[in-house]
Amino acid sequence: GAVVSQHPSWVICKSGTSVKIECRSLDFQATTMFWYRQFPKQSLMLMATSNEGSKATYEQGVEKDKFLINHASLTLSTLTVTSAHPEDSSFYICSASPGGGSQPQHFGDGTRLSIL
Amino acid sequence: GQNIDQPTEMTATEGAIVQINCTYQTSGFNGLFWYQQHAGEAPTFLSYNVLDGLEEKGRFSSFLSRSKGYSYLLLKELQMKDSASYLCAPQDSNYQLIWGAGTKLIIKP
What we know:
A: mainly beta; four-stranded antiparallel sheet; B: five-stranded mixed sheet
């Protein structure tokens, strides 16, 4: 149980393109989903916390107009990287939790984004 | 501030036992999670401790001492596939996980 699906796995695109990443909880309802970014050999960096039906809460330094998050249902959250540039190239990972403090975050497989 | 301290890297031998220590400081505390992350992959959940003591799950055990801000992950009967990074992630008063860089564990034959 507790499977989180993330698509796409890999994206390679030109600078200026907008890229949409989907995160789905397949066998549970996720009241909260999280979006992370991770650079090589560095720790996970929380970008934003997404609650179903409300606006996402962004971490300090993360541009909300650059990284658009939509959490339209209890099983789906999307992250759109708008007008992506080479410095946005990274490993983006979503996670979802069924809720409750003792419930772990379950991670999707991540999306490796490369902007040329 | 909030911080986590784990060794950067550890090496162990296949079949042996290894203990990965973690000390933490958080604003409030609502349990601690351990995750495994293989290179180039997303983390996978290993264990959760909220009360003091040892939680055992197969070859993996995790210990917590809240008063000391200390936890460890114990891996027994090490296998080559256990080569990965191990992330200690305490949960603060807002139920937000605090992430460090983790411990890279290298298993040698």
